[in-house]
Design goal:
single chain, 214 residues, alpha+beta, three-stranded antiparallel beta sheet, 13% strand, globular
Length: 214
């Protein structure tokens, strides 16, 4: 069985990991597939989301919001109208397969199979995609939207839907008084809650959180 370490910056085989780790999680890639909606499959997904969050409650809740929005399952391969497929529990779009394959140094066929059938590899990939977007945008809800689409109006609609899923699962007070973008440009051009050169972003309802840095 081969294991890989997934971190907020990217994927690397353990034997040549050189990038800084941020709550990294070791992923085993030989997990048997589960049928859609089975109790065992759901338990496995829950454990993998917990592992991917690395003890960060805000990140675990975010991953659950994405999972509830996407509604995937172990073994899922859902075709989109553009010919791509959404894979596994958090429905990672197949557009990501070549990039992830290059990062882990394995074939696209292997990576696609892992995204479909290994709940922990899937949750780890979802974490990486979201945290990369959060680091790039400095905006929690923008990053949620980027997980779904590069198009602004699709991002807004998706983020609103994810926020509703998170409220249903964790309570309406999860975000505080309102659901808005977590950071906005200041006069200096930096996001609210982020100091120059820092890797922290203020996430509404979760306080100041650490995001990946180079």
């Amino acid at each position: 069985m081969t294991s890989f370490r997934l971190n907020a910056i990217g994927f690397s085989p353990i034997s040549r990991l050189t990038l800084p780790l941020c709550a990294s999680v070791v992923l085993s890639v030989a997990i048997p597939a589960q049928a859609r909606g089975t109790a065992d499959g759901e338990a496995r997904i829950a454990e993998c989301i917990r592992q991917a969050a690395g003890g960060k409650a805000w990140l675990e809740k975010t991953l659950w919001g994405l999972r509830d929005q996407e509604g995937g399952w172990i073994g899922a391969e859902v075709r989109n109208t553009n010919g791509s497929h959404d894979l596994g529990p958090l429905q990672i779009n197949s557009w990501w397969v070549p990039k992830i394959a290059a990062l882990v140094g394995r074939s696209q066929a292997e990576v696609r199979a892992w995204l479909m059938h290994d709940a922990c590899f899937n949750a780890g990939a979802a974490r990486w995609i979201f945290l990369s977007a959060l680091r790039t945008t400095g905006d929690f809800w923008k990053a949620v939207g980027v997980y779904h689409s590069p198009t602004a109006w699709r991002q807004r609609r998706y983020a609103q839907s994810v926020s509703r899923h998170m409220q249903r699962r964790f309570g309406r007070n999860i975000f505080g008084a309102a659901i808005v973008a977590s950071s906005r440009p200041t006069g200096s051009g930096r996001p609210v809650g982020a100091e120059a050169g820092s890797s922290a972003t203020r996430v509404l309802g979760f306080g100041l959180v650490r995001t990946p840095s180079n």
